[in-house]
Amino acid sequence: MAGQQSSESSERIVLNIKGLTKRFGGLVAVDNLALNVREGQICALIGPNGSGKTTALNLITGIYRCDEGSIQFFGEEMAGLAPHVICWRGIGRTFQNIRILGSHTVFENALLGKGYGNKGAGIIHTVLNTARYRKERAANTDEVNEVLAYVGLADLRNEKARNLPYGKQRILEIARALITKPKLLLLDEPAAGLNSKEIYSLMELVAKINQQGISVLLIEHRMEFVGTLADWVFVLNHGSKIAEGTFDQIKVDPDVIQAYLGREGAKLAENS
Ligand code: ADP
Ligand code: MG
Known about the structure:
The chain is α/β, with parallel strands linked by helices. Helices cover 40% and strands 23% of the residues. The protein is globular and about 55 Å long.
């Protein structure tokens, strides 16, 4: 919704990032980044390849440590905390490159989120099928089934994950993240590689997740996805934020068009 980030907005700030900087040798992958995600919003982080989007998500989730800056989640500092602690506090995520165990079932893959999100047995116990894992599994079955039903994968719960069409594997990753009961869900290119029908289902799912009160920050190249779903868009280029606003505002911004010149620039213009 236009204007949601205006100063008179009364929503609570879920994620408040200031001065976030990450260097890899001489390269400044994320450069003094500031952004806010307000409660109930779907925000998008867009920008050309290599502009620092995934690095920003890796900083928020504690996979990388920032060199400078602050990452506050509901007012609490997250910078410096371990990834599993950040997950327990309520930040869930999916990855740009799909991360599922193909030879394990849909159910087992979703259950992995439970181990990670709720201080459970975790991947080693899960893979080795230890007693601790079996006990937790019994306790968690209902919860996993509920989430699988919610995302529309209940019928496929006993299927090996590698047999799922790509679009459903992406949804399985979202299910695994939802099991951690996030208040903020971070999605790294959820629509990459999906056909238009799969993108439509994914958009419906993200909207449904958001309607139940989970704020979303997503990275996406598919402009129809961003244009349809995002309340607010941040644009990165060479690690720096060059624009933010509604999709209608940023798509006519000369700096944004300049950054996207070429194939993606044309796509952006097509959506104007
Ligand atoms: P995006 O997700 O926007 O495509 P990334 O955040 O993946 O971009 O990458 C931003 C820049 O940081 C790129 O130049 C990339 O090569 C570099 N980079 C990302 N991760 C690492 C790393 N672990 N080590 C060194 N350079 C990295
Ligand atoms: Mg990326």
